[in-house]
């Protein structure tokens, strides 16, 4: 079960301002992602605004879904323009922020201080592709609910349980007995390892610039993705994708 | 050997304007990437502009490298501001665009209509990490030389031979006998395949939105990266990274 932030008291008629991190709610932009949200987390969404340019067929689909879920739809071009000034957006969904419950029996993707919203959204998309549903963010993470993150995830943020911890120790205390795989340049070659299939596992990735600090050398089994010397490191989303692919296929999930 | 575009006639004193795709030259922004360019492709770079805020030690390193390569350095804050208005840039290198020569004996990364500069730069970075030096761009590619692409590549664009073709057929006519691996959702599972080690190979990736069209089902051995049904597809840079990692490690390059 997901835990949701409260709706604002005047949620039906309040003026919608451009997104800020301190809001209890956020926006999903575009007809397809709005429908994805209604289908996956209907309790989260509490208002839908459409553009007068939305096609009749798009409006019909949206109206039916919203009715089933008991969500109000209004048409308001000025609000759309205010929330999405640069894009050709025809529908905006307003949704309560949410947080999952940690499941010690599942595999986790753990991100320590991920800084870039595009990277974070992309990693969530990859996580869903490789059947990870628990996404742990530790420390000063980019905003999981920012409309840029939501967009980069292609709606995948609505398919996972986001989990937020202040420190790795706080996370480890809640995560249960498991095998940790920190990805770092000082680790041993991932390509020579088989993932532990006797316990749940955590794949841990560090910040874009600084990676994971040396304290992670003492956490579980540090791994590196072997590559040539032409570049210092792989891009974070690429490294996370390669790590998740290795893990899910070695575990024969598919 | 690389083939270079001509320098502008008045290259020593011409006013430098914000980058446009039709220029014969482009810009690399930042002290570290400028030094990377001098070290790797000294014939390409023909002018260096620095900010008055550049540190004395940075200026000393740059001056020595530029002197060896016979390149003029000037200090000009207004030009820096014009070329890089949003960033805190202390050095800009002006370089001639270049094109490599196709090598039929090497493995190639082939990108069909890649649309996003950030993705293109990132894929070039990953290509260098996995020892691909021939990057083929086919059709309406994002601009390989745009400063955004150069930045996303972390300077890796200066480590590869870029090759440009109007169509796949034109490329295939020049590429020599080889095994083609188009990555597409209708391919067979990559994870069950071993790359051909008896011939040079090409890994082929399509556009971010449309992928590769069905005509590629008749080209070589189409492959898909197996993933769950939670998302329609992987992000292009992630898919390219997983494909290159599979290939280079199965070939035991490292």
Task: Please describe the structure with a list of short key phrases separated by commas or semicolons.
homodimer; 254 residues; alpha/beta; 60s Ribosomal Protein L30, Chain: A; Alpha/beta knot; 4-stranded mixed β-sheet; 7 helices; elongated
Care to describe what's here?
- 2 copies of one chain form a homodimer.
- Chain A has 2 domains: 3-98, 2-Layer Sandwich (60s Ribosomal Protein L30, Chain: A), CATH 3.30.1330; 108-250, Alpha/beta knot (3-Layer(aba) Sandwich).
- In chain A, helix 1 runs parallel beside helix 2 and helix 4 (117-129) runs parallel beside helix 7 (236-250).
- The first copy, chain A, has 7 helices and 12 strands.
- In chain A, strand 8 (134-138), helix 5 and strand 9 (161-165) form a beta-alpha-beta unit.
- In chain A, the strands form 3 sheets. In chain A, strands 9-8-7-11-10-12 form a 6-stranded parallel sheet.
- The mean pLDDT of chain A is 95.
- With 254 residues, chain A is an alpha/beta fold.
